[in-house]
Design goal:
Elements lengths: L5 E15 L5 E15 L3 E5 L6 H8 L7 E6 L2 E2 L3 H10 E4 L13 H11 L6 H14 L16 H13 L5 E5 L7 H18 L2 E5 L3 H7 L2 E6 L2 E7 H6 L4 H8 L6 H6 L30 H5 L5 E4 L2 E3 L4 H4 L1
Helix pairs in contact: 3-4, 3-5, 4-5
């Protein structure tokens, strides 16, 4: 494994939550089921899929906010296993949460919110250095020094998300998981925040896992895109490739729903509408989880989950019938 090329490597990751289904019985909810991928240094990997497909759980499990049920997480060529590994890993990674309203402590000032990671990891020599670092972080996300002693409730959603981003960057991380960081914001603010993520990536050499369900946002910011369905990864390719030539039936449906600004092209585009509802992850179909909504499902789909195979350079698909249907 080349540690300089892949910053984060995830192998056979599983995250099962025990759900009480009777007086004495529990059933595992397979939120993430055998997912593998790698994120190269300096790139943005977009992770998309419908609500409830396990995107957020993947992000949180990679950062060990949830203890993985099974699988391996490698960072800079080293597997994260022991408590010592985890402490070092936590300093070099961070997360920007979806909801800027509930992810900030209402009793803390902006200065204390941003300074908390610095306190935990003891990253300053004296109070003056702490203050300078906090003001520098605020400046890098477009907040000014007079905001430092205010409380989170005094800010708009966009400003709160900037506070959350400054907090995430406090320890100078290399890898940041962005969990739908703009979905709770007004559309006019979304573009500003997305552009800020881009600028920060250039300045600080950051690597992102960018989780979202807005496909236009993902296309704008991602180098590569992974598509998830019911805890499984079904397709992974370069952003342009997956938009122009989706191969998995589920990806085709997702991409056909992306609005196109040109009315002529939009009219010519055929919308691929899925029938049926997403099955419950507590009672997922056997074999390929998408088969209950797939127009191309055959007997083989019920028997085994297709493996994620490379069908062209850098384009991976998990489908038994990829060659037939494309």
């Amino acid at each position: 494994m080349n540690e300089f090329e892949n910053l984060v490597v995830v192998q056979n990751l599983k995250q099962y939550f025990p759900i009480k289904t009777g007086v004495m019985t529990t059933t595992p909810l397979k939120a993430v089921d055998d997912v593998s991928f790698a994120i190269r240094k300096g790139e943005t990997l977009g992770l998309v899929g419908e609500s409830g497909c396990g995107k957020t759980t993947v992000g949180r499990t990679i950062l060990h906010l949830y203890k993985p049920t099974d699988g391996e997480i490698w960072f800079k060529g080293k597997e994260i296993k022991t408590k010592a590994d985890l402490k070092d890993y936590r300093r070099q990674t961070a997360m920007v949460f979806q909801d800027p309203y509930s992810s900030l402590n209402p009793r803390m000032t902006v200065s204390d919110i941003i300074g908390e990671p610095l306190d935990i990891h003891k990253m300053y020599a004296n109070k003056q250095e702490r203050k300078e670092k906090i003001l520098e972080l605020m400046n890098s996300v477009g907040l000014n020094s007079e905001h430092a002693n205010r409380y989170a409730h005094e800010f708009s959603g966009g400003q709160r998300q900037r506070i959350g981003i400054a907090r995430a960057l406090a320890t100078s991380p290399e890898f940041v998981v962005c969990d739908e960081p703009v979905s709770a914001l007004d559309v006019s603010i979304q573009a500003q925040v997305i552009n800020m993520f881009d600028e920060l990536q250039q300045e600080m050499g950051l690597t992102y896992l960018f989780i979202a369900h807005d496909l236009l946002v993902v296309r704008h910011i991602s180098d590569r895109i992974a598509v998830m369905y019911l805890g499984k990864m079904v397709e992974l390719a370069d952003a342009k490739e997956i938009y122009d030539h989706p191969l998995h039936p589920y990806s085709k449906s997702l991409m056909s729903a992306v609005p196109v600004p040109n009315p002529k092209i939009a009219r010519a585009n055929k919308r691929v509408v899925l029938t049926g509802d997403i099955p419950s992850p507590l009672n997922a179909p056997s074999g390929c989880p998408f088969r209950t909504r797939c127009a191309y499902a055959c007997d083989a789909c019920a028997e085994a989950m297709p493996e994620l195979k490379e069908v062209s350079p850098g384009h991976f698909v998990a489908c038994h019938r990829t060659e037939e249907i494309n």
